[in-house]
Amino acid sequence: MAERVPAYRRIAVDLAGRIRDGEYRPGDALPPQRELSTRYGVTLMTLRQALQELRDDGLIVQQPGRGTYVAPAQAAYRVDTLRSFVDDLREQGHEVSTEVLAAAVESVPEPGLRLTRLRRLGGQPAIHQTSWVPSPHADAVSSADFSTKSLYAALAEAGVTIVRASERIVPGLLDESVAAHLERPVGSPIFVSERTTYALDGRPVVVDRAVILGDLLEIRAERAATRLSLQWGRSVDLR
Fold it and tell me: Which CATH topology does 7-70 take?
């Protein structure tokens, strides 16, 4: 005999399907709880179990005194991959464009390529990223068109094998040097990602610093014993 599916679970699956099919779009209010409980023929307690499941899955948000809303669409910056920002975001269906703000081979403090890019999501500035590629790899990628090609792809074409990366992500506040590029006021909430990427020989090939608007992107990790280990430390008190 097939196992009976609990009523709250059937309701959650049905509502999730309606959200994913676009019947309820991001930001839309769901019908009041009493209306939904009547529609599904269940008690308010059972309905609230279903809504709790949807909330845990990130599909809805509940605002006390106002109602239940479909969660706004957010891009996710994943920390469990060795791909570029753009590759991750495009896989999620986001329209991403890159503007190269500066690209120059420098000799101070050591020879290398300094690359500064602005990433836009749906035409809206979202990420300001500065990358440093030390020589000799800088010479191999300096002629690439980084408005259409990721730095990782350029390195791969140059025969560089990337094997690991070390990344630190902390909350912060937008400073004046980047605020104009991201078109946000100084002091807006941000994430700051500092990532060092290493080649097969153990030497760093990219040192990145990315300023990510905190209200446009969320940070997501998938944990498995062989895939990702996260260590949580105390952040600097910004108050």
Answer: Arc Repressor Mutant, subunit A (1.10.10)
